[in-house]
Amino acid sequence: MARGKLEPYRNKRDFSRTSEPAGSEGEGGNRFVVHKHSATADHYDLRLELDGVLKSWAVPKGPSLDPAEKRLAVQTEDHPVEYIDFEGVIPEGEYGGGPMIVWDTGTWAPMGDPHADLEKGAFKFRLAGQKLGGGWMLTRLKAKPEDKGKKNWLFFKERDTSADPARDILEERPESVKTGRRIEQLVTPVPAQPVKRSKPQPGRVSGAVKAPMPDKVDLQLASPADEPPAPSRNARWLHEIKFDGYRTMAYLSGGSARLITRGGLDWSRRYGDLPAAFGALPCKEAIIDGEIVVPDARGISRFGLLQEALSEGAGSRLVFYAFDLLYLDGWDLRQVPLVKRKPLLAQLLSGSLGGRSPIQYSDHVEGDGTGLYEQAAQIGLEGIVSKRADGPYIGGRSSSWLKIKAPQEKVYVIGGYTPSAAAGGIGALGMGEWVDGELVYRGKVGTGFDAATMADLLQRLEALRIEDKFEGAPRDILAVKPVLSAKIRFTNVTADGLIRHGVFKGLREVELTAAPQQSRQRFISDADLAGIWVTNPTRRLFGRSGPTKLDIAVYYAAVGDFMLPHLIGRPVSLFRCPTGRPNDCFFQRHPFTGMPTTLKTVASKTSEGEPQTYLSVEDAKGYLALAQFGVVEFHAWGTRRTHIEKPDRVIFDLDPGEGIEWRDVVNAAVHLRGELEALGVVPFVKTSGGKGVHLVVPINPKLNWKTAHEATARMATLLAKSGPDTFVTTMGAENRKRRIFIDFHRNARSATAVSAYSLRARPHLPASTPVSWEDLESIDSPADLNYSSLPGLLTTAGDPWAEINESARDLPT
């Protein structure tokens, strides 16, 4: 049905000449787009998604927010739904030849039956776009003989709160909501007949060097700046949109592509259909720098959507925005000025570009980047990247590339709030930041809440009230346990670190997907819970902002049914903090005076054959009683007392060095998952409770400690070779700068690793939390999994490690 509707559209176009989409049958949707189109004359095109196509009207004078202004709208042929994303230049000589931008887009809703209303010529609907909103009306005019088949309508604004006769929205907002460009800033029309288009000639460009294609190119990185650089006689600048995705280098050779992440990992397999798209480019060899993103409905890259796509299977959802060409068919272009490299890139890509193409060209504006930056900030983009037009491509961070982020966004801890009955319960949030283990006041944020958000926040914060204020907080702030974090957008910070013009953008929360159905054994009975007793329950640990001794006892009681299956029967070391001062904490590996009678001992021998006695948790009572003794952390062996000389779990601890961010650690863990599975084992993952990640592999208890340790050493070496620019296996801080240390030494006899669900002795008590591989990629910060948040999450989601023992395999030797 939709194909028939699109025949008039298709018959008017030669798709070998134009990059407009030929279109396919759509599904039911409610999106709209308003294009600004400079063809024979400048005009606007209103398109509403209905019945799998875009119902379209040409509006010569464009929409007006003044209800008294009734604008002519000429109904045109139905367009394919893919046209919503189309922005570019239609070649001269083609139907509608000229540049076109996405002036506005969003969703729409009919105010009646759309089919009946269109039939009778009185069509009311509501728009929810970035520029247009509220009620609108299309009224069909009676046809006149001179109209010659044209369907003329009047398009005007309804009288509602979004009407504003004083505003000229067309003059005020001329830019594209997709790219921030004005229509006059579009590139020169793409030449017709892409099949016959001349290939790029890199050897004719000054600075190109004849050379074989390098196996590896160091990425050029941008330095942060507060504002776009001003053009001068000595410095020309190109300004591009800053994308929110994964920086990736594409190495093309022999019709296939290797896609290498910023950390040096080959993620070609993980990027779904994207590598195959590079095979269509008209070249034998090339190196292209770009960013892999997933755009939202407005065309804006969203990192959350990219995480979702990768965790579910990328398929065809990814888009590669190419912004630099470093090598092409025998010519190294890194010494060629950027302003000459980009036209070569545009020429290389021109035959493959389209509204739905998996490879897109990252265009730019020249000269002053202030306008692009302001538009980027206004429509919610990450910001812009400004690059010296005459600059070569230089590996590493340099001042010839500058990144200017739109109003900054950062996560702060909610340390309290000021009450306000007039404002709905909360006047402002008191924000804090962890500094050397103490929460330090960073200012108040009192805007950005709607009524529902404020009510939810107030309910949560009232339940977290405590007496002690955090450092630097004003007297009017009511202190709360510092366990909730919020995203705050702000202009800048003062010299003493206080937020300026902060706006609340939402809580940073973790959601864990439900684990497979499992019959969970109950280890802790109501009688066990009733027997919990601690002295000094209100004593704070790790500073004034830290949790109480009772908080720790309550946490371990809440997670016991999930934690004990991974703890019972294993030799254990306890990390005790009886006074709450970090300097007084110590490890307890052996029996101690006054320990709970239900805590057991394990008789063993050292490697020299000397007798030694270790501790073991054997039941819920012993486990719960340890809270009285100031136990904060549990560290277990990778074996059980029943086969103490043969490990049944091995661990690869990914310990990030200086300069490695959480996102890099997650990427590395996901990569190593595939490598371990290729070795025939089944890796499980948990956060370390710090900056790292633990890959835990269940194994059949057949090997002794020495053999298992040697096997994991060889495995770690193989894992590191899969990403030599990312991983090291050599100890020492100097060896792991901008690298991730794969620590396999926890697989030696009597070595321990922090137990699943154990807290870590830090002010906000993060937990070493088992997660599914899908959830790992959705976690913004491991600190969000803590003594306050985790019990509730587990109640809903369950234990993702419930089947870890059934996944044991022989350790490859």
Automatic annotation (TrEMBL):
<keyword id="KW-0067">ATP-binding</keyword>
<keyword id="KW-0547">Nucleotide-binding</keyword>
<keyword id="KW-0233">DNA recombination</keyword>
<keyword id="KW-0548">Nucleotidyltransferase</keyword>
<feature type="region of interest" description="Disordered">
    <location>
        <begin position="175"/>
        <end position="211"/>
    </location>
</feature>
<protein>
    <recommendedName>
        <fullName>DNA ligase (ATP)</fullName>
        <ecNumber>6.5.1.1</ecNumber>
    </recommendedName>
</protein>
<keyword id="KW-0269">Exonuclease</keyword>
<keyword id="KW-0227">DNA damage</keyword>
<dbReference type="InterPro" id="IPR012340">
    <property type="entry name" value="NA-bd_OB-fold"/>
</dbReference>
<feature type="compositionally biased region" description="Basic and acidic residues">
    <location>
        <begin position="175"/>
        <end position="184"/>
    </location>
</feature>
<dbReference type="GO" id="GO:0003910">
    <property type="term" value="F:DNA ligase (ATP) activity"/>
</dbReference>
<dbReference type="InterPro" id="IPR033651">
    <property type="entry name" value="PaeLigD_Pol-like"/>
</dbReference>
<dbReference type="InterPro" id="IPR052171">
    <property type="entry name" value="NHEJ_LigD"/>
</dbReference>
<dbReference type="InterPro" id="IPR014144">
    <property type="entry name" value="LigD_PE_domain"/>
</dbReference>
<keyword id="KW-0540">Nuclease</keyword>
<keyword id="KW-0234">DNA repair</keyword>
<keyword id="KW-0239">DNA-directed DNA polymerase</keyword>
<feature type="domain" description="ATP-dependent DNA ligase family profile">
    <location>
        <begin position="311"/>
        <end position="433"/>
    </location>
</feature>
<keyword id="KW-0808">Transferase</keyword>
<keyword id="KW-0464">Manganese</keyword>
<keyword id="KW-0436">Ligase</keyword>
<dbReference type="InterPro" id="IPR012309">
    <property type="entry name" value="DNA_ligase_ATP-dep_C"/>
</dbReference>
<dbReference type="Pfam" id="PF04679">
    <property type="entry name" value="DNA_ligase_A_C"/>
</dbReference>
<keyword id="KW-0238">DNA-binding</keyword>
<dbReference type="InterPro" id="IPR014146">
    <property type="entry name" value="LigD_ligase_dom"/>
</dbReference>
<dbReference type="Pfam" id="PF21686">
    <property type="entry name" value="LigD_Prim-Pol"/>
</dbReference>
<dbReference type="InterPro" id="IPR014145">
    <property type="entry name" value="LigD_pol_dom"/>
</dbReference>
<keyword id="KW-0378">Hydrolase</keyword>
<keyword id="KW-0479">Metal-binding</keyword>
<dbReference type="Pfam" id="PF13298">
    <property type="entry name" value="LigD_N"/>
</dbReference>
<feature type="compositionally biased region" description="Basic and acidic residues">
    <location>
        <begin position="1"/>
        <end position="17"/>
    </location>
</feature>
<dbReference type="InterPro" id="IPR014143">
    <property type="entry name" value="NHEJ_ligase_prk"/>
</dbReference>
<keyword id="KW-0511">Multifunctional enzyme</keyword>
<dbReference type="InterPro" id="IPR012310">
    <property type="entry name" value="DNA_ligase_ATP-dep_cent"/>
</dbReference>
<dbReference type="Pfam" id="PF01068">
    <property type="entry name" value="DNA_ligase_A_M"/>
</dbReference>
<feature type="region of interest" description="Disordered">
    <location>
        <begin position="1"/>
        <end position="31"/>
    </location>
</feature>
